[in-house]
Amino acid sequence: MQQLSALIDRLHLAIPTGSPFLIMIYKIIIVVIGFFIAWFILRWLLHFVENRLKAYEFVQGNSRIFHLIRRVLFLALLLAAGTYLIRLTKTPALEKIFHAVLIVFMAIPAKDFLRIAITYLQSSIAHKTENKVDDIIFELLARFAGFIVFATAMVMALDLLGVNVMPFIAGAGVAGVAIGFAAKDTLSNLIAGVLLIIDRPFEVGDRIEVWRAPTKSATWGDVIDIGLRATKIKTTDNIVIIIPNNEIMLRDIINYTTITEKIRVRIDIGIAYDADMQKAKNIMLQAAATAGWVAKDPPPKVVVRNFGEYSVDLQLRVWIANPRKRMDTISYITDMVKELFDEQGVEIPYPKRDVYVKGKL
Known about the structure:
Number of strands: 7
Number of helices: 11
Protein backbone atom coordinates (compact mmCIF):
# COMPACT_ATOMS: atom_id res chain seq x y z
CA MET A 1 0.00 0.00 0.00
CA GLN A 2 2.91 2.39 0.73
CA GLN A 3 4.38 1.70 -2.73
CA LEU A 4 0.97 2.46 -4.29
CA SER A 5 0.74 5.76 -2.41
CA ALA A 6 4.26 6.77 -3.46
CA LEU A 7 3.51 5.94 -7.11
CA ILE A 8 0.32 8.01 -7.13
CA ASP A 9 2.11 10.90 -5.42
CA ARG A 10 4.76 10.89 -8.15
CA LEU A 11 2.07 10.83 -10.85
CA HIS A 12 0.12 13.76 -9.50
CA LEU A 13 3.30 15.86 -9.20
CA ALA A 14 3.36 15.93 -13.00
CA ILE A 15 -0.13 17.50 -12.99
CA PRO A 16 -0.55 21.22 -12.26
CA THR A 17 -1.47 21.56 -8.60
CA GLY A 18 -4.30 23.59 -7.23
CA SER A 19 -6.50 23.38 -4.18
CA PRO A 20 -6.40 20.29 -1.93
CA PHE A 21 -9.80 19.35 -3.30
CA LEU A 22 -8.49 19.30 -6.88
CA ILE A 23 -5.47 17.25 -5.76
CA MET A 24 -7.85 14.71 -4.23
CA ILE A 25 -9.87 14.61 -7.46
CA TYR A 26 -6.67 14.01 -9.46
CA LYS A 27 -5.69 11.14 -7.16
CA ILE A 28 -9.14 9.57 -7.39
CA ILE A 29 -9.07 9.73 -11.20
CA ILE A 30 -5.56 8.23 -11.27
CA VAL A 31 -6.60 5.38 -8.95
CA VAL A 32 -9.76 4.59 -10.93
CA ILE A 33 -7.92 4.61 -14.26
CA GLY A 34 -5.10 2.51 -12.77
CA PHE A 35 -7.65 0.06 -11.36
CA PHE A 36 -9.20 -0.60 -14.78
CA ILE A 37 -5.82 -0.78 -16.53
CA ALA A 38 -4.50 -3.27 -13.96
CA TRP A 39 -7.71 -5.31 -14.17
CA PHE A 40 -7.46 -5.44 -17.97
CA ILE A 41 -3.82 -6.60 -17.81
CA LEU A 42 -4.51 -9.23 -15.14
CA ARG A 43 -7.47 -10.64 -17.06
CA TRP A 44 -5.35 -10.90 -20.22
CA LEU A 45 -2.52 -12.63 -18.35
CA LEU A 46 -4.95 -15.04 -16.68
CA HIS A 47 -6.58 -15.88 -20.02
CA PHE A 48 -3.11 -16.54 -21.47
CA VAL A 49 -2.19 -18.84 -18.57
CA GLU A 50 -5.54 -20.64 -18.82
CA ASN A 51 -4.98 -21.45 -22.49
CA ARG A 52 -1.51 -22.79 -21.71
CA LEU A 53 -2.74 -25.04 -18.87
CA LYS A 54 -5.83 -26.50 -20.55
CA ALA A 55 -3.95 -29.69 -21.40
CA TYR A 56 -3.58 -30.66 -17.72
CA GLU A 57 -6.12 -33.07 -16.27
CA PHE A 58 -6.69 -31.03 -13.11
CA VAL A 59 -7.56 -27.91 -15.13
CA GLN A 60 -9.87 -29.90 -17.43
CA GLY A 61 -11.77 -31.31 -14.48
CA ASN A 62 -11.92 -27.98 -12.62
CA SER A 63 -12.60 -25.35 -15.27
CA ARG A 64 -14.25 -23.06 -12.69
CA ILE A 65 -10.95 -22.49 -10.93
CA PHE A 66 -9.94 -19.67 -13.31
CA HIS A 67 -13.29 -17.98 -12.75
CA LEU A 68 -12.55 -18.07 -9.02
CA ILE A 69 -9.03 -16.73 -9.56
CA ARG A 70 -10.46 -13.80 -11.56
CA ARG A 71 -12.86 -13.07 -8.71
CA VAL A 72 -10.05 -13.15 -6.15
CA LEU A 73 -7.84 -10.84 -8.26
CA PHE A 74 -10.74 -8.42 -8.72
CA LEU A 75 -11.35 -8.33 -4.96
CA ALA A 76 -7.61 -7.86 -4.33
CA LEU A 77 -7.49 -4.87 -6.71
CA LEU A 78 -10.65 -3.52 -5.15
CA LEU A 79 -9.05 -3.86 -1.71
CA ALA A 80 -5.94 -1.91 -2.77
CA ALA A 81 -7.79 0.83 -4.65
CA GLY A 82 -10.61 1.13 -2.13
CA THR A 83 -8.25 1.31 0.84
CA TYR A 84 -6.23 4.11 -0.78
CA LEU A 85 -9.35 6.11 -1.68
CA ILE A 86 -10.82 5.72 1.80
CA ARG A 87 -7.54 6.85 3.37
CA LEU A 88 -7.81 10.04 1.36
CA THR A 89 -10.96 10.81 3.34
CA LYS A 90 -9.11 10.15 6.64
CA THR A 91 -11.94 8.06 8.09
CA PRO A 92 -10.44 4.95 9.79
CA ALA A 93 -13.87 3.67 10.78
CA LEU A 94 -14.97 3.55 7.14
CA GLU A 95 -11.76 1.70 6.25
CA LYS A 96 -12.48 -0.96 8.87
CA ILE A 97 -16.03 -1.40 7.59
CA PHE A 98 -14.75 -1.69 4.01
CA HIS A 99 -12.19 -4.34 5.00
CA ALA A 100 -14.78 -6.29 7.00
CA VAL A 101 -17.19 -6.35 4.05
CA LEU A 102 -14.42 -7.53 1.70
CA ILE A 103 -13.50 -10.34 4.11
CA VAL A 104 -17.07 -11.62 3.93
CA PHE A 105 -17.06 -11.38 0.12
CA MET A 106 -13.71 -13.19 -0.03
CA ALA A 107 -15.36 -16.11 1.80
CA ILE A 108 -17.37 -16.96 -1.37
CA PRO A 109 -14.40 -17.84 -3.61
CA ALA A 110 -12.57 -19.30 -0.60
CA LYS A 111 -15.46 -21.71 -0.05
CA ASP A 112 -15.46 -22.71 -3.73
CA PHE A 113 -11.66 -23.18 -3.71
CA LEU A 114 -11.95 -25.39 -0.64
CA ARG A 115 -14.64 -27.55 -2.22
CA ILE A 116 -12.60 -27.97 -5.41
CA ALA A 117 -9.57 -28.99 -3.33
CA ILE A 118 -11.63 -31.46 -1.28
CA THR A 119 -13.18 -32.98 -4.41
CA TYR A 120 -9.77 -33.33 -6.06
CA LEU A 121 -8.20 -34.95 -3.00
CA GLN A 122 -11.21 -37.25 -2.64
CA SER A 123 -10.94 -38.46 -6.23
CA SER A 124 -7.13 -38.72 -6.32
CA ILE A 125 -6.48 -40.10 -2.84
CA ALA A 126 -9.53 -41.31 -0.93
CA HIS A 127 -11.12 -43.31 -3.76
CA LYS A 128 -7.87 -45.17 -4.40
CA THR A 129 -7.53 -46.53 -0.86
CA GLU A 130 -9.31 -49.51 0.65
CA ASN A 131 -9.78 -47.72 3.96
CA LYS A 132 -13.10 -45.87 3.95
CA VAL A 133 -12.29 -43.56 6.86
CA ASP A 134 -10.69 -41.01 4.53
CA ASP A 135 -13.81 -41.11 2.30
CA ILE A 136 -15.92 -40.29 5.35
CA ILE A 137 -13.65 -37.40 6.38
CA PHE A 138 -13.76 -35.86 2.91
CA GLU A 139 -17.54 -36.24 2.69
CA LEU A 140 -18.01 -34.49 6.03
CA LEU A 141 -15.58 -31.73 5.01
CA ALA A 142 -17.45 -31.23 1.74
CA ARG A 143 -20.77 -30.94 3.57
CA PHE A 144 -19.53 -28.46 6.22
CA ALA A 145 -16.94 -26.52 4.15
CA GLY A 146 -19.25 -23.60 3.42
CA PHE A 147 -20.36 -23.21 7.02
CA ILE A 148 -16.78 -23.34 8.32
CA VAL A 149 -15.50 -20.72 5.84
CA PHE A 150 -18.38 -18.28 6.36
CA ALA A 151 -18.27 -18.66 10.15
CA THR A 152 -14.53 -17.92 10.12
CA ALA A 153 -15.04 -14.91 7.84
CA MET A 154 -17.75 -13.48 10.09
CA VAL A 155 -15.58 -13.86 13.19
CA MET A 156 -12.64 -12.15 11.43
CA ALA A 157 -14.87 -9.33 10.18
CA LEU A 158 -16.38 -8.69 13.59
CA ASP A 159 -12.95 -8.79 15.21
CA LEU A 160 -11.66 -6.25 12.65
CA LEU A 161 -14.55 -3.95 13.54
CA GLY A 162 -13.50 -4.15 17.18
CA VAL A 163 -16.44 -6.27 18.25
CA ASN A 164 -15.63 -8.71 21.05
CA VAL A 165 -16.86 -12.02 19.69
CA MET A 166 -16.36 -14.00 22.90
CA PRO A 167 -19.74 -12.99 24.41
CA PHE A 168 -21.39 -14.02 21.14
CA ILE A 169 -19.63 -17.39 21.22
CA ALA A 170 -20.64 -17.92 24.85
CA GLY A 171 -24.19 -16.85 24.07
CA ALA A 172 -24.23 -19.15 21.08
CA GLY A 173 -23.19 -22.01 23.36
CA VAL A 174 -26.07 -21.31 25.75
CA ALA A 175 -28.47 -20.86 22.84
CA GLY A 176 -27.16 -24.09 21.35
CA VAL A 177 -28.06 -25.99 24.51
CA ALA A 178 -31.57 -24.49 24.51
CA ILE A 179 -32.02 -25.20 20.81
CA GLY A 180 -30.69 -28.72 21.40
CA PHE A 181 -33.47 -29.45 23.87
CA ALA A 182 -36.09 -27.85 21.63
CA ALA A 183 -34.92 -29.63 18.47
CA LYS A 184 -33.64 -32.88 19.92
CA ASP A 185 -35.29 -34.95 17.19
CA THR A 186 -33.60 -32.92 14.46
CA LEU A 187 -30.24 -33.12 16.21
CA SER A 188 -30.75 -36.84 16.72
CA ASN A 189 -31.32 -37.22 12.99
CA LEU A 190 -28.17 -35.19 12.23
CA ILE A 191 -26.04 -37.31 14.56
CA ALA A 192 -27.57 -40.47 13.11
CA GLY A 193 -26.80 -39.16 9.62
CA VAL A 194 -23.12 -38.72 10.53
CA LEU A 195 -23.09 -42.24 12.01
CA LEU A 196 -24.65 -43.63 8.83
CA ILE A 197 -21.89 -42.00 6.78
CA ILE A 198 -19.26 -43.47 9.12
CA ASP A 199 -20.76 -46.93 9.62
CA ARG A 200 -21.96 -47.38 6.02
CA PRO A 201 -24.68 -50.03 6.52
CA PHE A 202 -25.76 -49.22 2.96
CA GLU A 203 -24.68 -47.07 0.02
CA VAL A 204 -26.60 -45.08 -2.56
CA GLY A 205 -27.91 -47.64 -5.06
CA ASP A 206 -28.17 -50.52 -2.56
CA ARG A 207 -31.44 -52.44 -2.36
CA ILE A 208 -32.80 -52.73 1.17
CA GLU A 209 -35.99 -53.69 2.96
CA VAL A 210 -38.41 -50.86 3.76
CA TRP A 211 -40.40 -51.22 6.97
CA ARG A 212 -42.47 -48.04 6.52
CA ALA A 213 -43.92 -48.81 3.10
CA PRO A 214 -47.63 -48.04 2.56
CA THR A 215 -50.03 -50.92 3.09
CA LYS A 216 -50.17 -53.40 0.20
CA SER A 217 -47.21 -51.77 -1.58
CA ALA A 218 -43.65 -52.93 -2.24
CA THR A 219 -41.62 -53.48 0.91
CA TRP A 220 -38.16 -52.96 -0.55
CA GLY A 221 -36.41 -50.41 -2.71
CA ASP A 222 -33.18 -48.67 -3.75
CA VAL A 223 -31.40 -46.05 -1.67
CA ILE A 224 -31.30 -42.84 -3.74
CA ASP A 225 -29.95 -40.35 -1.16
CA ILE A 226 -28.32 -40.45 2.28
CA GLY A 227 -28.74 -37.03 3.86
CA LEU A 228 -27.74 -35.73 7.26
CA ARG A 229 -31.38 -35.60 8.37
CA ALA A 230 -33.10 -38.38 6.43
CA THR A 231 -32.56 -41.14 3.89
CA LYS A 232 -34.60 -41.45 0.68
CA ILE A 233 -35.57 -44.88 -0.64
CA LYS A 234 -37.41 -45.46 -3.92
CA THR A 235 -39.49 -48.64 -3.78
CA THR A 236 -40.17 -50.92 -6.73
CA ASP A 237 -43.59 -49.21 -6.98
CA ASN A 238 -41.69 -45.96 -7.79
CA ILE A 239 -42.67 -44.47 -4.43
CA VAL A 240 -40.04 -42.41 -2.62
CA ILE A 241 -40.08 -42.98 1.14
CA ILE A 242 -38.17 -40.50 3.33
CA ILE A 243 -37.15 -42.10 6.63
CA PRO A 244 -35.53 -40.10 9.50
CA ASN A 245 -31.99 -41.28 10.15
CA ASN A 246 -32.48 -41.82 13.88
CA GLU A 247 -35.24 -44.33 13.08
CA ILE A 248 -32.96 -46.18 10.65
CA MET A 249 -30.26 -46.51 13.31
CA LEU A 250 -32.74 -48.22 15.64
CA ARG A 251 -33.87 -50.84 13.12
CA ASP A 252 -32.40 -54.01 11.67
CA ILE A 253 -31.22 -53.14 8.16
CA ILE A 254 -31.63 -55.84 5.52
CA ASN A 255 -29.28 -55.07 2.64
CA TYR A 256 -29.44 -57.30 -0.43
CA THR A 257 -26.47 -55.80 -2.28
CA THR A 258 -23.90 -54.74 0.32
CA ILE A 259 -21.45 -57.62 -0.38
CA THR A 260 -22.59 -58.94 -3.75
CA GLU A 261 -25.68 -58.60 -5.89
CA LYS A 262 -26.03 -62.38 -6.12
CA ILE A 263 -28.84 -63.58 -3.82
CA ARG A 264 -30.73 -66.80 -3.16
CA VAL A 265 -34.47 -66.93 -3.76
CA ARG A 266 -36.68 -69.45 -1.93
CA ILE A 267 -39.99 -70.59 -3.44
CA ASP A 268 -42.35 -72.66 -1.27
CA ILE A 269 -44.60 -75.19 -3.04
CA GLY A 270 -46.77 -77.89 -1.47
CA ILE A 271 -47.69 -81.27 -3.00
CA ALA A 272 -50.20 -83.92 -1.96
CA TYR A 273 -49.06 -86.75 0.31
CA ASP A 274 -49.81 -89.35 -2.33
CA ALA A 275 -47.95 -87.45 -5.11
CA ASP A 276 -44.63 -88.69 -6.51
CA MET A 277 -42.15 -86.57 -4.58
CA GLN A 278 -39.15 -87.20 -6.83
CA LYS A 279 -41.22 -86.39 -9.89
CA ALA A 280 -42.35 -83.14 -8.27
CA LYS A 281 -38.73 -82.22 -7.45
CA ASN A 282 -37.63 -82.85 -11.03
CA ILE A 283 -40.47 -80.70 -12.37
CA MET A 284 -39.53 -77.83 -10.05
CA LEU A 285 -35.90 -78.03 -11.20
CA GLN A 286 -37.11 -78.11 -14.80
CA ALA A 287 -39.16 -74.96 -14.19
CA ALA A 288 -36.11 -73.22 -12.70
CA ALA A 289 -33.99 -74.17 -15.72
CA THR A 290 -36.39 -72.36 -18.07
CA ALA A 291 -35.61 -69.04 -16.34
CA GLY A 292 -32.53 -67.83 -18.21
CA TRP A 293 -31.39 -65.47 -15.42
CA VAL A 294 -31.24 -68.24 -12.78
CA ALA A 295 -27.62 -69.16 -12.00
CA LYS A 296 -26.38 -72.64 -12.85
CA ASP A 297 -23.62 -72.43 -10.24
CA PRO A 298 -24.63 -72.99 -7.51
CA PRO A 299 -27.33 -75.10 -9.14
CA PRO A 300 -31.00 -74.94 -8.11
CA LYS A 301 -32.09 -77.51 -5.55
CA VAL A 302 -35.27 -78.68 -3.86
CA VAL A 303 -35.55 -79.56 -0.15
CA VAL A 304 -38.36 -80.91 1.98
CA ARG A 305 -39.22 -78.28 4.55
CA ASN A 306 -42.08 -79.77 6.48
CA PHE A 307 -44.92 -82.28 6.63
CA GLY A 308 -47.94 -80.01 6.75
CA GLU A 309 -51.50 -80.71 7.76
CA TYR A 310 -52.53 -81.51 4.21
CA SER A 311 -49.36 -81.26 2.09
CA VAL A 312 -45.68 -82.07 1.89
CA ASP A 313 -44.00 -78.65 1.88
CA LEU A 314 -41.15 -78.42 -0.64
CA GLN A 315 -38.88 -75.44 -1.19
CA LEU A 316 -37.07 -74.59 -4.43
CA ARG A 317 -33.85 -72.62 -3.86
CA VAL A 318 -32.25 -70.76 -6.77
CA TRP A 319 -29.52 -68.14 -7.11
CA ILE A 320 -29.93 -65.03 -9.24
CA ALA A 321 -27.35 -62.38 -10.16
CA ASN A 322 -29.76 -59.44 -10.03
CA PRO A 323 -31.63 -59.00 -6.72
CA ARG A 324 -34.08 -56.66 -8.45
CA LYS A 325 -35.54 -59.72 -10.24
CA ARG A 326 -36.44 -61.49 -7.01
CA MET A 327 -40.22 -61.08 -7.32
CA ASP A 328 -40.09 -61.75 -11.07
CA THR A 329 -38.27 -65.01 -10.33
CA ILE A 330 -40.82 -66.11 -7.73
CA SER A 331 -43.76 -65.25 -10.00
CA TYR A 332 -42.29 -66.85 -13.13
CA ILE A 333 -41.22 -70.13 -11.51
CA THR A 334 -44.48 -70.46 -9.54
CA ASP A 335 -46.50 -70.08 -12.74
CA MET A 336 -44.28 -72.54 -14.60
CA VAL A 337 -44.47 -75.15 -11.79
CA LYS A 338 -48.27 -74.90 -11.70
CA GLU A 339 -48.44 -75.40 -15.46
CA LEU A 340 -46.05 -78.41 -15.41
CA PHE A 341 -47.80 -79.98 -12.39
CA ASP A 342 -51.14 -79.78 -14.23
CA GLU A 343 -49.63 -81.35 -17.36
CA GLN A 344 -47.95 -84.23 -15.52
CA GLY A 345 -50.61 -84.93 -12.93
CA VAL A 346 -48.89 -83.76 -9.74
CA GLU A 347 -51.53 -82.61 -7.30
CA ILE A 348 -51.26 -79.33 -5.41
CA PRO A 349 -53.54 -80.03 -2.44
CA TYR A 350 -56.12 -77.85 -0.76
CA PRO A 351 -57.17 -78.13 2.88
CA LYS A 352 -58.80 -81.48 3.64
CA ARG A 353 -60.40 -82.99 6.72
CA ASP A 354 -61.28 -86.63 7.29
CA VAL A 355 -64.43 -86.89 9.40
CA TYR A 356 -65.24 -90.18 11.11
CA VAL A 357 -68.76 -90.65 12.50
CA LYS A 358 -69.10 -93.16 15.25
CA GLY A 359 -72.50 -94.43 16.18
CA LYS A 360 -74.25 -97.40 17.78
CA LEU A 361 -75.46 -100.06 15.42
